[in-house]
Amino acid sequence: MADFQFNVAKGRIAELARRVDGGDPANSRLLVVAINRGAATDATMRDYDTLAALLGDAAVAEVTNTGYARLTRTAAQVTVTVDNSGDVQNVSIGTLSFGSISAGTAWTDIVVCYIPDGVTPGADSTAIPLTNHTFAVTPDGTSVTATENASGFFGAS
């Protein structure tokens, strides 16, 4: 599950994931970005309203390892389920496989964003950051994989 939710997305994550899952708008996506966070705190990061603003922080940088590419999640890969017995909506985006990533920048976190503009991969200025997940990895040329827990990457209760 998420370490924290960005303030701009609180109360909206399940709704935005449901929009991607339902194809409304047709080209909406979730975007997964790996970052290396320096001294940026959760309190500072959660205040950013766009991916561009987050990456504009001098203490936050998208990783630049050879082989790294942002991942997108479309309707076919996003699932929102209602668990009435647990009183929660669970959002799943499946296993994230980044392929073979060369040594270089260490990864500290993964940020999941919503792209509403129907442009793939979308502009960072319109990508809304939803959740931040601690993901400490030191790439070494092998595959980097992130697996969500059994409930998904986010649960709204």
Can you count the beta strands? Answer: 11
Q: Which overall shape is indicated by the principal axes computed on the Cα atoms? A: globular
What level of helicity do the residues show? 10-25%
Question: Structural class, please?
Answer: mainly beta
Average pLDDT, rounded to a whole number, is 92
Radius of gyration: 15 Å
- Outline the low-pLDDT stretches: none
Order of helices and strands: EHEHHEEEEEEEEE
Tally of individual domains: 1
Note the quaternary state here: single chain
Which sheet architecture does the biggest sheet show? 6 strands, antiparallel
- What is the count of helical runs? 3
Fold blueprint:
Layout: E1 4-5, H1 13-22, E2 29-37, H2 42-45, H3 51-55, E3 60-62, E4 71-73, E5 79-83, E6 88-92, E7 96-100, E8 107-115, E9 128-137, E10 143-146, E11 154-156
Antiparallel strand pairs: 1-9, 2-3, 2-4, 2-8, 5-6, 6-11, 7-10, 8-9
Primary descriptors:
single chain, 157 residues, mainly beta, six-stranded antiparallel beta sheet, three-stranded antiparallel beta sheet, globular, Baseplate protein J-like domain-containing protein
Would you mind describing this structure in some detail?
The chain is globular, with a radius of gyration of 15 Å. The strands form three sheets. Strands 1, 2, 3, 4, 8 and 9 form a six-stranded antiparallel beta sheet that branches. The protein has one domain. The longest helix is centred in the first third of the chain and has 10 residues, at 13-22. With 157 residues, it is mainly beta. The protein is built from three helices and eleven strands. The protein starts with a strand and ends with a strand.
